[in-house]
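During the second year of the project, the team shifted from modelling isolated chains to modelling whole assemblies. The rationale, set out in the original proposal, was that interfaces cannot be judged from single-chain predictions alone. As a representative example for this report, we include one of the complexes processed in the last quarter. Its constituent sequences, exactly as entered into the pipeline, are reproduced here:
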Amino acid sequence: MTVAASLRSRRARDPLPGFRLALGGTLLWVGLIVALPLTALIVRPWQEGPSAMLAALHDGRMFAALRVSFTTALLAALIDVPLGLTLAWALVRGRLPGRRIADGLIDLPFAIPTAVTGITLATLYGPQGWLGAPLAKLGLSIAYSATGIVVALMFVGLPFIVRSVEPVLRDLPPELEEAAGLLGARPWQTVWRVILPTLLPAAVSGFGLAFARGIGEYGSVIFIAGNQPYHSEIAPLLVVVRLQEYDYAGATSIAFVLLVISSLCLAAVAWLRRRVARGLIVGADE
Amino acid sequence: MIGSSRWGLAALTWAIIAVILILPPVLVMTEALRNGAGAPIASLADPDALSAIRLTLVMTALSVLINTIFGVLAAWVISKYRFPLRGFLVALIELPISVSPVVAGLVWLLLFGTQGWWGEALDRMNIHIAFAAPGILLATLFVTFPYVTRTIAPLMEQQGRDAEEAAMLLGASFFQILWRVTLPEARWALLSGVLLTTARAMGEFGAVSVVSGHIPGMTETMPLHIETLYNGYQTVAAFSMAALLALMAMATVGLRSLLEARARASLQTKDTAP
Amino acid sequence: MSVRIENLVRTAPGNASKVLLDGVSLDVPDGSFMALVGPSGAGKTTLLRAIAGLDAFQSGSVVIDERDATGLSARDRNIGFVFQNYALFRNMTVARNISFGLDVMSRSQRPPQAEIDRRVQELLDLIHLPDMGGVWPQRLSGGQRQRVALARALATRPRHLLLDEPFGALDPVVRRSVREWLRALHDQLGLTTILVTHDHEEALDVSDRLVVMQDGRIVQDAGPDALEARPATPFVMEFLGETLKFAGQVSGGMFIPADPHVARFSVPGVADGEIIALIRPHEVRITSAVNGAPARKVGLRYGFARLAVDMGDRVVDILSATPWDVGESVELHIDAARLFRNGRMVEERCDGWA
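Output from the structure prediction step:
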């Protein structure tokens, strides 16, 4: 029976060589670097019993930090959407002078390490900074407040919007606008009723990516944030604070909540993108 | 009318780009060079600075090496085969992208920290992972985990299995197929993924910050050393290090953009050829 | 050098209820040139890939040169395979493509480099591309790529050659010449060749034997003449060319057609009952008749007049050697027909096919 079974399995196996070796290597790698530590994160909060987890979750400072992270990330991503759409439009359709240079600059926030971004934005928008000083004269203080967090997250999130929208915009047939124009639509009607709806799925996905990134962002934020508990202290920073206090349970429960939020957020984006994409874009090639 | 709106859009775009994107790097350079060109060089020659640069280079090289080798294997598996739970594996590989860097550091402390599962036992055996170089490596590996696979797997899937099957029928082994057929066809994407991994690895701050312990001259990478200098009000030194790190990362990303343009071009010529 | 397939079963991956190969058995003797034909989805390519060891199967066996190849890895089967889209390695020159099978041999088996180079040149001459060794495959035309793919498959001197729709992407003129050349090559090298095609004319032109497949099964396995004379099922007849269909009754050795305007004809030895007669368009003879079916000329083919005959409830297209006037009233005469009952050919044939 075992011989027959082994013959059978040999027959049913994919003949392209390397599957077992590559799958084995992949599982080892994923297991050690991703699955194992994340298992620790998921199991650890419950190790001291559910009451300890509940106690750790019942922490006003933690809720404040999560609220700060959530609202600033949301606000920054929302502001990034019109900015990103403008940039993407200018890059693809606007015949922008210096387009190639602008295109390269879009990726700067991806390229610059977060610590560099952090100290740079803190200096730029600080009370003596190039932008901070004139804004202070107008009575606007950005650095060392929640506003500073939004500014930092805007910087980090902007490329997500541009790079999500850009390819869709590039593939958008010009005939779409021409058809709308021939049907009597004014330019703003064309943009509002034809262009924007087709860009919506891409914009939503860019928004979701920027938002998810913003919630977890650490390095570019902590220098400019001021980090006052309950006001401008972001959740990732509180994780670090708890660790410095040797409060592993506290740190882990915040981290757990952060992981759940960002996973849910990305799942929602994926779901939304599928739904919206199905309904809206109808091209000749589909 | 149309012309004016076009120039209006261009002006608006460049204003956004200037304020949001150009000012920061200009500021980095200005701050670094505030006391002349000698100051940054002197500050980078500091032993702690040199140690940070060395540690960053070593960690980056190791992370890139490990994540490239396994990333290629993973891309091979998920792009060339269909098997149960494949979607779950893909999701698991993508997961680190959505995890906060701080969490990416914390998870290693849960395993290897003093209060972690195995920290104490390893400590007794005189093996130090948390607050030491191995912890930094693990954190960097986690953070840069998906980039190689993510970059090459879609291309490898698009290329299908025909070339691999032809090679197999001609007698090639797994490594011969991978090395002579699959990877050469995906070489631009692979390089691009490697460069992305490199840029992310050398710039990683949050995750490394949590596991490193911040011991100057020992466990400080370049981003961590920037923080230490900045918090110690050594502005010029901080921005000098920042400038160096930013230049390294920007060069890497710039090279990657160039390669992507080439990859797209080569893909197009292949597409037009039936 | 023979290939034998016994009772091969393969189901669709992930959907075991969808049967791709439904117990296929086939014998390909040494030196034969066999064509697997059938509509798309019939299982031709699936069968070819199973023989090559590219796809796994659930049960049955593949025997190559009297050795069970089931456990044999694809690369140990001594098979040359040409893919539908050629699957040339884009990152290698034509010469490196051709030598690939030699290059990847283990050091102990691999011929010296000089010999590899000589073999490559020999194959380049064979495919009439002697100076193309240094060219990248992207620069070649479809027909040239096809030949390079063939040379690559032949470099390791396989005894069996499997081709999956090899002419599909070529234009008709190139197609014909490559076809003839391939047949000559097969004879010259003494290969055992299996060709998959959905084009019956191609298969009739080039192969000694045709295997007609439908829904994962072999419907008929015969030479071109036998296939035309004695198609096993109406499907085979229809697949091999334009077919006219006449339903009717056999009564006392006579075929009585259901259609009006068709003359009855004798079918000695055929049992009474319902029957279907299938005829090629040129096998119908027409004569003038009073109150017959109106016919009109709709075109020309191979010098025959193409006539549309209005039978009342349907229009039948036939070929006639004699020119015909529009609107003339005709009657159809059938001298030779293949008779089918319950989907199978009736063994006894009628008059003209003695």
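The first strand of chain C starts at residue 3 and ends at 12. The mean pLDDT of chain C is 87.
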